[in-house]
Amino acid sequence: MNDIFGTEVSLETTAARDSWNKMQMAFLAHSAATPNHLADVLEREPGFAAAHAVKGLFYMMLGKRELIEVAIEANKTAQSCPKSPLKRERSFVRALNLWLAGHMIQARDEVETILIATPTDSLAMKISHAMSFIMGDRQMMRRSLESVLPSYDPTHKASGYIKGCYAFALEETGDYTRAEEIGREGVLQAPDDAWGLHAVAHVYDMTAQTTKGLDWLTGREKSWAHCNNFRYHVWWHKALMLLESGHIDQVMDLYDTEIRADKTDDYRDISNATALLSRLELYGHNVGNRWEELAAFSENRTEDGCLIFADLHYMLALMGGNRKDAIRKIMARMQRDAARNGSDSDRVMASPGLSAMSGLEAFSEADFTGAFANLSAARSQMQLAGGSHAQRDIFERITIDAGIRSGAFAQAEAILKDRQTNRGGAEDNFASVRFQMISDARGDAQKQPAE
Ligand SMILES: [Fe+2]
Smallest Cα–Cα separation from 194: which of 183, 203, 204, 205? Predict the structure, then answer.
C-alpha cells in the first residue's frame, strides 16, 4: 500500500497506515501530537522497523544523553524486526545505526539516498532537513530541497511544507527576497506550518525589518499553537523583534508567559532563553533572577556532550548564574571529547567548540582580550555549531562586545561590517549602537591630551 505522499510502505493494515500518515503530517507541522501518532503505529504494527527507526531518529534530535538510551533501544528493536522488503525503509534503520555510531553526516546522507530514489518522500525530506539544520549544513539543506522540489506538484500533501523548508534554506543561504516570497506562499498552502512561518520571521530578523516582522507574527498565533516546544521558539522570534525595537517590558513579559512558561531542560528551550537573556544584558538590561533556573538545569548537563550547540547555551546559563564549578566541569569534558576525536560531534567540539567555549569563559571573567581572541578565532567555524544565523548571533554579539571592551576597535568594526554584509547590508539596532560606541571611543581617544 501507499502512504499519503504516494510512497510505498510495508505496513499491513490501513489503520496503521492512517496513523503513519498522521504522524508524517504532524511531524511536518512540528505538532505536539507527532509522538502519539507514532506510538499508535507501533502499537498496531510493532514489527514495522521503519517506525522504530524514525522514533530513534526523533530521540536523537532531542540532543540529550538519557534520550540516546531510548534511541539505542529503538535501534535494537528495529534490528530485531523482520527485514523490510523496501530499500527506503531499511535506509531509515541504517541512518539511525550510523548516527548512534557517531556518524551523523553519513546518517543524513543515508536519508538522502531515499530522496534520490523517492524525491516525493516528505518524511525523508524533513528528517534530512532537520539533521542538516542541527549540523549547520545550510548548503546541503538547500541542495537537498532543490533536488526534490521539481518532483512536487501542487496537489502533493506536503507541497506547502516543503516551501517552508525551502524558504528557511534560502534565508540561511542569504537569498532573503526569494525566502520571503516562497515562505509566504508556503504558509498560504499550509497555514499550520510554523516552520515556514518562522522562516519568514527569520528574513525580517536578518534584514532588520522589525515592524514588518512583528506584523507578520501578530495575529498568526494559531499557526504555532499546536506545536511541540517549537512554539516557544516562535515566541522567541517575536521577542527578538520587540527587543530590537526597544519594547523591553513586552520582551520580559513574553519571556515569562510564553518562552519560559514551561521550565523544561530541552536544549532548544534553554537556547531560546539564554540567548534572549544574554542579548538583554548586552543592551544593559537587568534580567533579575531569571538565570537561576537555567543555570540549575545546565549544571546537570555538563557531562552530556551531545551537541556543541547545546553546550554553548548551557555555558551561557552557567555564566549568567555564576556557576564556576560547572563551567570548569563542562570545559574539562569538552577537552576530553575534542581529544577523543571519535565522532562527527567530537570534531566539532574541537573546532569551533573549544575556542568558542574558552572565549565565553574568559568573557564571564571580564577577560575581554582573551574572550575576543578565542571567540574571533572560532568565528569562521561557528556555522558548524549548528542552528540558525539568528540563534548563533548571540555569540557574534558577545564577540563584538569583547572586541570593543578590550579596545580592539578595528577588528570589532570589521566583524560588525561582515555581519552586516551577511544580512544583505541591513544595519540593525545592535549594529548601530556598536558602530556608535566604536566611533565615540575613537573620538575620546583622539581627545586625550598627549603626555
Ligand atoms: Fe528560528
Answer: 183
CA of 407 to the centre of ligand 1 (A): 32
Buried b (16+ CB within 10 A) or exposed e, 189-206: bbebbbbbbbbbbbbbbb
The DSSP string of 385-425 is G-S-HHHHHHHHHHHHHHHHHTT-HHHHHHHHHHHHHHTTT
| All domains of the chain in start order, with CATH | 263-451 (1.25.40)
Spacing, Cα 328 to ligand 1 middle (Å): 30
- Centroid of ligand 1 to alpha carbon of 225 (angstroms): 16
Give me ligand 1 centre to Cα 227, in Å.
Answer: 14
Q: Which three cell numbers stand for residue 128?
A: 534530512
User: Residue 329 and residue 327: Cα distance in Å, rounded?
Assistant: 5
Question: How far is residue 147 CA from its own chain's centroid?
Answer: 23
pLDDT averaged over the chain?
96
Phi, psi of 306, rounded to the nearest 5 degrees: -80, -45
Share of the chain above pLDDT 70, in %: 99
How many whole angstroms from 439 Cα to the centroid of ligand 1?
A: 32
- Give the mean model confidence (pLDDT) for residues 12-32: 98
Let me know: does 294 contact 320? Beta carbons within 8 Å.
yes
Chain segment 281-319, per-residue pLDDT in tens: 999 999 999 999 999 999 999 999 999 999 999 999 999
Length of the chain: 451
Distance 18 CA to ligand 1 centre (A): 31
Contact 406, 372 (CB under 8 A): yes
Write out pLDDT tens, residues 81-140: 999 989 999 999 999 999 999 999 999 999 999 999 999 999 999 999 999 999 999 999
Ligand 1 centroid to residue 203 C-alpha, Å: 10
Does 451 have pLDDT greater than 60? no
CA atoms within 13 A on the CB side of 367: 11
